[in-house]
Structure to design on (319 residues):
């Protein structure tokens, strides 16, 4: 972790062990870190030069006792330097982006449209958009995956764990091909529906960016794509997704409504979130997120209030 502050593995290991010990000799640290004594002695001198450790006495580094500088003070100083560097990099990125937008504007397309060529470039931009998602990812999946296969998309789990809502509509052929992967996605919190026909491949991120193929020809669909940023066009594409979503049916056995009803029943039975997650084969994070949505829907400020709302709803349904 501390390599982000320009400490190599040996330096980080020696410093960590010294922090845990309070004071130590180079020989003790060499044994603890499983490193050669001369290497540890040299590392301690490097750490001393960086202000991370101090000598206790004078003499050869191997024979001295050493103590660490307070991490908050010593590492905080290194962090401040790195933050200054990152701010400078951020400013440079802003300049480059402004230059890019100016160049694109001269070509006549402004910054509302990007054309991406080649499967590898399309895959890179898709993953980039997905990783940058803050709220939701909408995905129309028509036919088999071409640029990014589901099994080659580990970033999706990271996005879900951040609380980003992912909704996907697939065709029956995709279900037949990727059922196990779709089921896994649902268990992790992804919402999947099946439509008899999906009009096009489409990904919309945060209702601000949309990625779609330039051509529908199966032989050319993975070769050229457009990334749209224009609000009006992205809004229209989002509306298209919502229309398809409303007509689609939940993936068999894994509808969000069924899972929500199961969570409600298990909550009323007094099970913990961890136990609920095990019962419905999902993550605790997903249970937390769905309970929060129930609270938003019912207007409950606390889980206790939510319980009363759910009991009332259950009573109305049975009545």
């Amino acid at each position: 972790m501390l390599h982000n502050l320009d400490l190599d593995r040996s330096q980080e290991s020696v410093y960590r062990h010294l922090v845990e010990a309070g004071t130590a000799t180079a020989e003790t640290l060499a044994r603890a870190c499983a490193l050669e004594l001369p290497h540890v002695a040299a590392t301690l001198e490097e750490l001393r030069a960086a202000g991370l450790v101090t000598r206790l006495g004078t003499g050869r580094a191997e024979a001295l006792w050493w103590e660490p500088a307070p991490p908050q003070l010593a590492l905080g100083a290194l962090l401040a330097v790195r933050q200054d560097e990152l701010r400078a990099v951020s400013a440079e990125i802003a300049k480059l982006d402004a230059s890019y937008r100016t160049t694109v504007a001269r070509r006549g397309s402004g910054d509302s449209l990007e054309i991406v060529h080649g499967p590898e470039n399309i895959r890179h931009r898709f993953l980039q958009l997905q990783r940058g998602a803050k709220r939701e990812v909408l995905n129309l999946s028509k036919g088999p995956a071409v640029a990014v296969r589901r099994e080659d998309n580990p970033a999706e789990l990271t996005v879900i764990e951040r609380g980003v809502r992912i909704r996907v509509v697939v065709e029956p052929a995709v279900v037949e091909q990727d059922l196990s992967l779709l089921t896994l996605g649902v268990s992790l919190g992804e919402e999947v529906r099946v439509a008899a026909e999906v009009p096009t491949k489409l990904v919309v991120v945060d209702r601000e960016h949309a990625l779609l193929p330039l051509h529908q020809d199966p032989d050319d669909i993975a070769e050229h794509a457009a990334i749209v940023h224009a609000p009006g066009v992205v809004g229209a594409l989002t509306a298209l997704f919502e229309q398809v979503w409303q007509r689609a049916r939940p993936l068999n056995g894994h509808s969000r409504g069924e899972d929500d009803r199961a969570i409600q029943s298990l909550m009323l039975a007094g099970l913990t979130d961890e136990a609920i997650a095990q019962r419905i084969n999902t993550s605790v994070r997903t249970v937390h997120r769905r309970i929060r949505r129930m609270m938003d829907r019912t207007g409950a400020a606390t889980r206790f209030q939510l319980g009363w709302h759910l009991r009332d709803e259950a009573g109305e349904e049975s009545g």
